[in-house]
Amino acid sequence: MLNExxxxxxxxxxxxxxSGISIYGISMVVMQLCLPVGSQMSLLxxxxxxxxxxxxxxxxxxxxxxxxHRIQYLFTWGILDLASAIPFLPLFRFLRLLRVxxxxxxxxxxxxxxxxxxxxxxxxxxxxxxxxxLLVYTAAxxxxxxxxxxxxxxxxxxxSDALWFGLVTVSTVGYGDLLxxxxxxxxxxxxxMFAGIGVFASxxxxxxxxxRRLARGGEKQITARDVSAQLDELRELVExxxxxxxxxxxxxxxxxxxxxxxEGEEFEES
Length: 270
What we know:
79% helix
């Protein structure tokens, strides 16, 4: 029972992340359709749409590896997931909304979502940070391209340049081959720098944790969070057991009362 809840928590955390990517990808397609064809801003949104497609392909492969019923998934949700990840077919992108529907089918209420996040906080936090990083990166690149294009002396005036500048900035490499000139572009770059430092530092902590466990011989230190989760699971088991016992006692009591009534009716008839 506990293993099933942990497994469901991991699935829910992943589906929340993929639902966020779905909304993100659809937003990129809508922005492309609203912009003039061939413009540099439209080209930049097409790049971000391609990033969403790559994430969806990785999500499809993740399901293929983790699903117990692979064939059933492949010919149901799998076909739709793969179709929504095909580049250069904008209409298929709207199939990504099915991710949100799938999430509502897995978790029927917000309390179940909160419970799943609480059971697997590390994965939930990691997915949230990756999603926030993608959003900040996208907004910063769009802002830099917009401010630099409207500035006469701007040097970052193509979608590919904005994408490359954002990647160099968020990774804190800073080659210096592209520099923002306008004030707005510099502010966007500053936000991107701070986001990159925070997210990559946190990701380093997540990646180093398995190495620490390996160095300790695979042993996992019990933390207060682990103890709290175990206590919550124990409480749920006790409450479930007590509820079942109460139902059993109630059923026995009703049966005894029914037997007493039957005996009373037989006594009256005699």
